[in-house]
Design a protein that fits this description.
By secondary structure, this protein is mainly α. Helices cover about 70% and strands about 0% of the residues.
Length: about 375
């Protein structure tokens, strides 16, 4: 339940963060610390992968586990390709519908694709052309593809596996090892999987039992809170833009919190937040559950909680759909304006759409046609 809960929260934050000129982005966790919802998504994906794939590796062997992972990589790959063409087509339609409005194709820098479709179509399919807006899923599928290798290393020696993963992360941070993002320049993937694998496999290792969960200790909790609080003036733009010393520090030490290669301060900040959240929700998420004697507020929270959990359970579908939906909601803002009222109802609309989508996909995955057949056959 805790995993679904925090994956669901991450999905709502990711939707908010990708709506253009959305004032709610001023209040997401990324504005107050080095890490953001991307770390939540990747870390929770690592934990979910340990549940989904770990059992196959344990019970059916490394070969079948690798085949299971390859199938997931295949799904994520085509989700990425489908998302690109869906968004690109939608941006063309919006440009045609609103010829005197914003240039939606240009907003996502898609003109290079349309100007050289033959070259970039091959680049898109080989992941050598990865526009910035579409770089999360390629990062994710590369990390997934690393999983059989890492599990084999752990079977040999856990310390060797940890050393290799740290070495791969250092190769991204120190030696700038990355993948090309477009054929005509030296730009690289914005999310470097060689760096981001560190947080993924941290979540995987915790869920798989490779490393023990930390104890619930008020001293550790105090240290984690201190790290989060100290990070605020270094990460919050309203502070560092006003205080020259913080701004100068950010310029000089940017490599410590770079998002592309997953700087070490992002890792420390995220682990601190994760520890705080883990302590606060209680054993097995007991403090998330509504009180049995809570009355109306408890019933309302139960409805909200069910929606969050459902979104978390369908995180890949919701993520892909929210990336598409965010561009449409941004275009909607352009038409209705960005007042306090419109900001509220458009964001609520987006949240309701992804909740409805999660419930719909969950219902389809339950194969209701089989249940109906069984029900009719019973008499």
């Amino acid at each position: 339940m805790r995993l679904d809960f925090f994956r669901g929260i991450a999905m709502f934050i990711i939707l908010i963060a990708h709506i253009p000129s959305n004032w709610l982005t001023l209040w997401i966790p990324a504005r107050f610390g080095f890490s953001d919802a991307t770390e939540m998504f990747v870390f929770c994906s690592g934990m979910a992968s340990a549940i989904a794939f770990g059992k196959v590796f344990r019970e059916q062997g490394h070969m079948m586990g690798s085949v299971r992972v390859a199938f997931r990589v295949w799904q994520v790959y085509w989700a990425h390709i489908g998302l690109f063409f869906a968004v690109a087509a939608a941006m063309v339609v919006l440009n045609n519908l609103v010829p005197d409005g914003r240039d939606y194709v240009g907003q996502l820098n898609l003109y290079p694709f349309f100007n050289r479709p033959q070259e970039n179509l091959v680049g898109l399919l080989t992941l050598t052309y990865v526009p910035n807006y579409f770089d999360v899923l390629p990062m994710y599928l590369v990390i997934l593809a690393m999983m059989p290798f890492v599990i084999a290393l752990v079977g040999f020696n856990r310390w060797v596996a940890a050393a290799v993963l740290i070495a791969i992360w250092l190769s991204a941070s120190v030696f700038d090892l990355n993948f090309p993002a477009e054929p005509w320049s030296e730009r690289q993937w914005f999310f470097n999987p060689l760096g981001w694998q560190l947080v993924f496999f941290t979540g995987f290792a915790l869920m798989a039992g490779w490393i023990p969960a930390p104890p619930v200790d008020w001293r550790l909790f105090a240290v984690a809170v201190l790290i989060v609080l100290v990070s605020v003036p270094f990460a919050y733009f309203r502070v560092y833009n006003e205080v020259e010393w913080f701004l100068e520090w950010r310029r000089e030490w940017r490599f410590l919190f770079t998002k592309t290669d997953f700087g070490i301060l992002r890792y420390v900040h995220f682990l601190s937040l994760a520890y705080i959240a883990w302590c606060l929700v209680g054993p097995k998420g007991a403090r998330i559950l509504p009180s049995e004697t809570g009355g109306l507020f408890a019933r309302i929270w139960q409805v909200i909680l069910n929606a969050i959990l459902k979104v978390g359970q369908q995180s890949l579908v919701v993520f892909v759909s929210s990336m598409f939906l965010a561009r449409l909601l941004g275009a909607l803002f352009d038409q209705v304006g960005r007042s306090h009222f419109s900001m509220a109802w458009v964001n609520i609309l987006g949240a309701l759409i992804i909740i409805a989508l999660a419930y719909g996909v969950g219902w389809i995955k339950s194969q209701p046609w089989k249940q109906r057949k069984s029900a009719h056959a019973a008499p």
